[in-house]
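Changelog note: in this version the structure field was regenerated for every chain. One regenerated record is shown below for reference.
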Amino acid sequence: MDLTKRISGVLMPLSSLSGGSFCGDLGAGSRRFADFLSRSGQKVWQLLPVNPINDCFSPYASISTFAGDPIYIDLEDLERVGLLEPEEIVSPSLGPKSKTVFHAAREIRMQRLKKAFVRFRRSSISTKYHKAFNNFVDESPWIGPHALFCALSEKFGTCDWTSWQDKALRHADQDALHKIYPELEETVAFQTFLQLLFAVQWNEFHDYCRKLGISLIGDIPIYVSKNSVDTWSEPRLFQLDEQGHMSRVAGVPADSFNPDGQRWNAPLYAWDVHKNENYAWWTFRIGNSLQRFDAIRLDHFIGFYNYFSMTPKPDPNDAGYWVPGPANDFFNTILGEFPNASLIAEDLGVMNPGVHQLRDHYGFPGINVFQFHFDFRRNTDATAEWSENSLVCTGTHDTNTLAAWFDEVLADRKKPEPFWDLKFLMEMLKPFVPSGSTLNRRTIIEAIIRKVMSSPGNVAIFPMQDLLQLPADARMNFPGHAEGNWVWRLDESLLTDELSSQLEQWTTEFNRIPSTVDNTQ
């Protein structure tokens, strides 16, 4: 993907699509949204991670770095190839329109996927899935450990492998795994089948977007979950003790989201081991992502320059400290393997000069967020200072919706010492309110979108909630808050011809419709 072209697109999580029962998936809803983007002149679809989610529904805390979440498998496609019967397909109208219900979605899909698995093994017909099976297994060395981990997690009732009753299995002892394999064989085969379905359907979805000229931007969470196949199968790569417990954990000191900082339930990397192995695990990880996506957002980019190390539990005598990361040595290795990789540095938050120097040394685009650049009564136009080599946006999956943010700005003006300079903000936005339009909340929010669209940054991305001017209950995630996140879902009736025409008009006005988009790596 060529990140130097002036283009625009939309941030839209797969789970938030309409179409599937209780949750978006890789079915018709994904195609309809791609069609909407195409009609609207958009060339980019940014997604959140699509790995298996945890019980808090966070795509940034997965049990598997390489697997896709079976919750996104399109059941209707299985019916088309004869692996499900028509009466086994659940109506997409089930569930609330504006909320994803992950537990219900998983239960419904797993019931049907188990039936499809039985037919897959017994079927006399040869489906596209049968034809893809051998290549998929050969090209996916991660599938064996992943399927075994899922089977053992089911056997012991938890993916917290440090609590499994069998010590040898806790430590992935090969003799113990070989001995128990006959008991797990059916579940291992089923888990392999699920990943085959996901891979085939994802490739078809990606091809559909590619034919429309739409590039996919993916997201690599910098850390993995402690309760994951990655830590279980390759514990040497992480800062774990002999029992598999975290000796230090990842986190961040205080920031604008959390004044007390954040302690993440994620182990830190043993970067010296990664270096000694020539970053093989990371090289495979990035290569796997580059097959799924046309560009990759490197989450928490600061962690490659230096990372914050904390105790697993709060310690008044140890508030945490910064440790140097792998930096140039890491990226020299990665780019030596993938010289044309399109990588985007998520450089949000408080950064030190070394982080920006690392980003700029490799020419990675950074990220500029409108909401972040007008804090503390700023009275200069920050957007004019944004680099061309950057991804610019009104907000991210971690910010409030643009409409809710602007409501906060309006409410803030009544305070004795307002946080934002509303007067300056309005003066800056007036030229972006269409001539003859009334200056009101709706047109001001549109003006912010047009302002970001006009900015120098090559790639402009807009969360779907911002384009729809949705309120705070459509926020995707509130960092540091465990409840109520990741569940917003699109009401497809809001994707009107009027919205599409308006978006295409803005995109054309600010010269963001190139003739072609290069998706080569």
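Spot check on this record: Residues 59 and 374 are 29 Å apart (CA to CA). The chain is about 40% helix and 10% strand.
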